[in-house]
Amino acid sequence: MDHSGHGMTMDLPPFTLGRGLEWSADPFFLVACLVGLGLYGWGVVRLMRRGDKWPVGRTAAFVIGVLTVALMMCTRLNDYGMVMFSVHMVQHMVISMVSPILVLLGAPITLALRALPTAGRGRKGPRELLLMFLHSRYMRIITHPAFTIPLFIASLYGLYFTPLFDTLMGSKPGHIGMMVHFFAVGLVFFWPIMGVDPGPHRPGYLMRMLELFAGMPFHAFFGIALMMASEPMVGTFMSPPASLGIEALSDQNAAGGIAWAFSEIPSVLVLIALLFQWYASDQRQARRKDRAADRDGDKELEAYNAYLASLNAQGR
């Protein structure tokens, strides 16, 4: 039976990393990755041609993020992921928790807003439509933690522990839709927390850290539940092909260990990014204050000293 449309997954030999990394492109994700890289490259080139700079680090982060999606979906990892819970879990974790972080660090929306031309007074072009979308009520809802955190949790428990997962895995469009969903959930969860792009919901740095750690324990508990289960819990992976030479329960336990471990990796990456952004923000604010002090002769300090002097006078 060919679940994925890539090859006969029932005839797959035992999994090795070398076999998993063999080329086996899913057409949908191959085209999507190429289009994403092409549009981003167009934006960078457009800025460079008019003399503007674009950070190399952002470009590298975006490209690596897109390539991680291609690695998961355009190799035989995708074929093995149809019949091995552990490999599928690697796909899920990377596409929902690593790829979105890297893509967001690439600031694609900021690049688009800088690269797209303005449509002119009274007209609406791609740039104006993007701005309307960013400031819409819809975006305020889907980037609010009251929405993103439950969605992040439901994408684990509501999917794997219900018949929905088996239904989606039973068809190629369902499988593609599920993977797109994983990526989208990662984007809306991490965007308000550590994305450098403008957005409707941008709390302070401390609140962002709290949002990050509010969802991660549920991720760890999900992994532990799979690791400690005494019987296979997901129908799709209950009877792996004999050619793989694996046992369903041990493979499920491995999948749980992968889910548990991945709950730590993105947390560290995002925390480092947040601390760096916080420091950079403080430095920019300090420079703005210094420039303002240079312009006005440090009137703010003079006013504060006068206030202290008045308090001293009152106390006499």
* Sequence stretches where pLDDT stays below 50 over 5 or more residues: 1-8
Principal-axes geometry comes out as globular
Q: What is the strand content?
A: under 5%
> What pattern of helices and strands is seen along the backbone?
HHHHHHHHHHHHHHH
Q: Tell me the Rg in angstroms.
A: 24 Å
The number of strands is 0
- Biggest sheet statistics: none
Structural class category: mainly alpha
* Percent range of helical residues: over 70%
Number of helices: 15
Cα separation of the termini:
92 Å
> What's the pLDDT, averaged over the residues?
84
Describe this structure in words.
- The protein is an all-alpha fold and 316 residues long.
- Helices cover 72% and strands 0% of the residues.
- The protein has helices at 17-20, 27-49, 56-73, 77-80, 85-105, 108-115, 126-134, 137-142, 145-160, 164-169, 172-194, 205-228, 248-262, 265-296, 299-315.
- Helix 2 crosses helix 6, helix 9 (145-160) runs parallel beside helix 12 (205-228) and helix 12 (205-228) runs antiparallel to helix 13.
- It is globular, with a radius of gyration of 24 Å.
